[in-house]
Recover the amino acids of this structure.
């Protein structure tokens, strides 16, 4: 459960993003399978949030994250 003071800036089936007061973006992944481009969209939104804030740091909570699909793995390697 999220603390009530934390704003979710973006959320989809892959996870959600929060801007932290310590000047970083927190990426928290949801459990379960992702569809299509969910991961790419989540990470693109993280990049957009970093640029909007003028920040450079991300903390990624992958504890609930399902393993990459073959398509996601190829995308990550190509990125």
């Amino acid at each position: 459960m999220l603390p009530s003071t934390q704003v979710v800036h973006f959320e989809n089936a892959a996870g959600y993003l929060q801007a932290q007061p310590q000047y970083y973006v927190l990426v928290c992944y949801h459990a379960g399978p992702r569809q299509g481009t969910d991961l790419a969209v989540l990470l693109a939104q993280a990049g957009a949030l970093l640029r909007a804030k003028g920040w450079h740091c991300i903390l990624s909570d992958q504890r609930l994250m399902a393993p990459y699909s073959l398509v996601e793995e190829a995308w990550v390697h190509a990125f």
Notes: DSSP finds two helices and four strands in the chain. The chain has one domain: 8-78. Residues 8-78 form one domain. The first helix runs from residue 38 to 53.
